[in-house]
Amino acid sequence: MSGIRRNVVWNDGCKYDYSNIPKKKRRSGNSSASTNSTSTRREGSSKIPDSEINQLQDAPDQSMVSSLSDSQVSVEAPAAVQASYPLDNFTSYVTQLRQQSAITMCDPLATVFALPDFNNHSLKLTVNKYHIVERCSKTVEHACEWFYCCSCSRREQDLVMSLSSVIVGGVSRIRDNYCIHIKAVIQIVNDIDVQYNLQPGLKEDDHSYTIPSGFADLDSLVEQTDAVFKVYGDGIFCSKSDCDSNSYGILCCGKGIKCMTCSQGCQSCSHVKQLKTLLSNEHEIYSQTLQDTLQSVQAILGDSSVSQSGSSPVCVSEKRIQFNVLPGQFKNTAGYNPHQFCQDDSTVTLVSCESCPTCGSELPGGDTATETVSWPCSHPPLVTRNFVFKTKVYQRPCSSCDTNLPFDGGADGILNMGTFLISHEVLRDYMYHFLQTGMTMFGYYQTLSKHMEDAGVAGFQQVLSYNKFRQSWYEFEELLDIDYSKGFMCPLCGPAPKVIICDGTALSFRRELLPWQQVLGESDSGTETAYPGSSHRDRVFITNQRGRKLLDSFVNSEVTPDEMAELVRIVPPSLATVIKQYQHLKTCPEGLKSLLGTLSKNSPVCGLLHPSEELHDFVQKVADGAAISDSVCDMEFLQKHIPVLFDHVRNGDSSCVAEELRPLLLALLDVAEKPFNQNARVPDDCAGQRGVNPDLISFFPALGHVRSRGKYTADRGRNDVKGCSKSSSGHPSLLPGMFLLNCGHGINYGFEVMVKHESPNTPFTILRTRFKDVPETVIYDNSCNLHSYCLNRDPLLFKNTWFLVDRLHWKNHKGCSVGYQLSRYPQYDNVNSQVVEQCNSALKKLKGQLSYMNPANFMRQAKLFLWYKNQAVIKRM
């Protein structure tokens, strides 16, 4: 068991490895059992005083954060808790803390916890008021027990922390005053204590754990070093300070930084100062998690950032940078080989030799040493892969228009950031590491710093801090001369792919960084026309659930005579005629199981018979008794369009479809065509739900907007019939993920960041708004629900589109018509339905860094990575 790594992640806090926490020594005899029973009895008998209950009734401060939605799920509280506090309130509090992962463990030893308060009137978490619950180990009657204190009562907190390690009397005084926050923590944390065997114990240091003999040679336990980390709530962080007795404080970042622990809205306590110090020291190299946290804080603070490091560098370079360069193209340039440009004092002289962008005049050549004496000059450092050089950078005047031309550096393989210069070689090196291995920016910077240290470059982190390197990379990325519209379009499919494969991935960024007002746009006025779509009842062959259930029993097991009579009575007459032929068998013949089993599903018939003029004529031909197995063309058409009927004909004794099945086929065709009997399609320019801002969180460079989404009757409520469900286990602080669109050849056409959990609305909106002609085939792991979603809104637009479930996920669709099964159709045998899954696998390695970027940087990095993957696929074509 010692080799098992036990990891626990509490909300957005750090990930702790519990294999490093020593286990409690078991006492001999019944001492352990008596300790547990004593602890449980005393904790359960505590009551909450009226003074503490009154604190829970404070209304939330809407100026800081918005309230959360109520939870509808309940958990059972201990009997003692029920007696001491209203069941509904305590249960709701614990339930919401569990469901929303709202408790954050602040230290790796599980002794300090941060959690939001609870509003007794609205029964909601109050995220503008937080508390710190701490616990310590004390000995009572020769047994070690946990004692808790909460920041909601500072006097009580001071009292508990001042007690010695051995308590002789007055234990009930402490237990009886446990507040609702402590009781909630006890109930939730107890599960972790049991799972990881975390028990109170006494040791001379500050850690309340007994060290077993197996850990005797350990010098110390692994401690959490990050001074600031994320906790539950938008813009809420925890700061660990060693400057005062209250070492943990909850900070709210918005228009400035305020501490909610020391005093509501305090801006000068040690916790705030600690965060401001970290933000202002850009030359320090922190851990990856701390660096990401500080970036999140800076993104939230925006213009009100407290950084004292001065103004950010501004990129001077404007020339576009080629992604692919010729071998040796920059071999003899100052950016790649600055040694040959050095003067006697090891200074590199850099002068622009480009044409004037104002008047277009060519700049004359000449002796730089004699002609640049009077030119404006600066001395920024030049960072290359192994050295840092001193420079003289000149602004060259144009003789025609008297314009001073700054040094661009593009032709020399240099990016001019004003206060410093950085070689393209460095930035390309990171770019290739990122694209090939998913290396983080911070990881590469640390590696570069080590190289510079080995090369003897002193003070490199002062010359090029991580923030400067990060900004220079984003500027370099913006200057890359990439035609994304061509890079996100398959050369074989063009701008209108006939087959698309789509799916979602969990890669996304933090909710708190999303500007909701920009994303959601204007709300509907409520006066727009809502289009009705089609009715699910009109799309299924057997409209009553009882009939489908009996037919399923007839196909898969057997039915009683009474059930057989009922089945014949309640199903459509054309199906009843077929069943009567075999009712004496009590079960369905093998040759009909596939067809009749499909009719027992609550799926649209148009998912089995895909309406078209060609299909209509063919079914009519079959119903007239044509010998279809005598014709290669007829059997091939049947195999590609109605594979379930193809199997029946292939295994039958006649070249024709059985006579009793022919009326059934005509009835099925009638139901399949019914959703498309409307006279008019939904207009392209109809008003209604605008959805998200397409320029902010979606990227489809080859698929521009062609129509609006529209507003539909089905949008007013949960009118979609329940079918297959796609589970979405959401992250408490990240957006649900990205939705990607690929063609059948594996080329990605773009992506959209989902602001809500993956649902059919995402692909529906993309298909309707970005495709003039909707693709002929949509392959998606939730195609069954997507098909119904589209039919409920704009059936005519999707009349000629087949919705199919990919091969990997079909096994999960037990209740769906086999008409959605991709592997049934031979024309798709060569289609790789897993291209999106494979793309998702490549994107997973980016999750650690992209998840903490702001939306603009996230979109920039994601599109570069996907573009590069597209280029690799195109080269293999």
Automatic annotation (TrEMBL):
PANTHER family found in the cross-reference section: EXPRESSED PROTEIN, SWIM-TYPE DOMAIN-CONTAINING PROTEIN
Record region (Disordered): 20-68
Designated name of the protein: Uncharacterized protein LOC118406562
Record gene name: LOC118406562
Source species of the chain: Branchiostoma floridae
Compositionally biased residues, Low complexity: 29-39
